[in-house]
Amino acid sequence: MCLSNTYGYIRVSTREQNEDRQLIALREMSVPEKNIFMDKQSGKDFDRPAYKRLLRKLKKDDLLYIKSIDRLGRNYLEIQEQWRAITKDKGVDIVVLDMPLLDTRRGKDLVGTFLADIVLQVLSFVAENERTNIRQRQAEGIAAAKARGVRFGRPPKPLPEGFHSAYQRWKARKITGTAAAQECGMPLSTFRYRAEIYEKSAIL
Question: Which of 146 and 50 is assigned the larger pLDDT?
């Protein structure tokens, strides 16, 4: 008979958080360091190497700790699918530390399983809905910032040394746009774009 093992899974986005909070929580549950699997990338898909290795290791009667339900997936359906694959197909128990009701070691009878399934459905829906709201708030924030004139992306390259002179002669119709662009060593479309920005900054 194989002895059961305890595992922990961590997923963090390198853009928005570090793993300390989840790591501390798993250590408090006495999960061995060698059994903690971590992916540092977003949950946009399940092509995650640490998660795949974890799934290969998990066997019947093992125990898996995760900090929150959204570590399992990016949306309602994925969370449900991964939960069932681990608990039903593999026979592994899951404990969600942020939600004690989601502990499959408890309530193995029909009523307990039914209640756990309801809680899982509600929480996975809430997790997906919150991500949707975050994306909407980010989009609204970016739109508002752009309306205020905030520029995103890399800053433009410095203007060439002779740009001001070429711009002034071009505006005075003394040279063509093509000639001005050649003097500045840039394509005509780039010269016109930079000239428009230059003109606006001069007005301001």
Answer: 50
The total number of structural domains that make up the chain: 2
Regarding whether 122 and 32 lie in a shared domain, the answer is yes
Q: Is 54 exposed, middle or buried (0-12, 13-18, 19+ CB in 10 A)?
A: buried
Residues 123 and 188 in one domain: no
97-155 residue pLDDT tens: 988 878 888 766 655 566 667 777 776 666 666 666 667 777 767 777 777 666 666 66
The CA angle 99-28-12, to the nearest 5 degrees, is 65
Residue 188 corresponds to which tokens in the numbers above?
A: 């005509």
| Global pTM exceeds 0.70 | no
Give yes or no: 30 in active site: no
Question: Residues for the chain: how many in total?
Answer: 204
Which is the catalytic residue, given 13, 68, 124, 189? 13
Report the candidate in 25, 93, 27, 29 with the shortest Cα–Cα distance to residue 59.
93
Shared-domain flag, residues 16 and 103: yes
- What CATH number does residue 110 fall under? 3.40.50.1390
Q: Can you give the residue range of the structural domain that contains 104?
A: 6-136
* Rounded Cα–Cα distance for residues 202 and 77 (Å): 54
Chain mean position to CA 185: 40
Q: Tokens in use for 137?
A: 């708030």
Instruction: Summarize pLDDT for 69-104 with one digit per residue, the tens.
Output: 888 877 777 888 888 889 888 999 999 998 887 888
Asked if 106 and 33 sit in the same domain, the reply is: yes
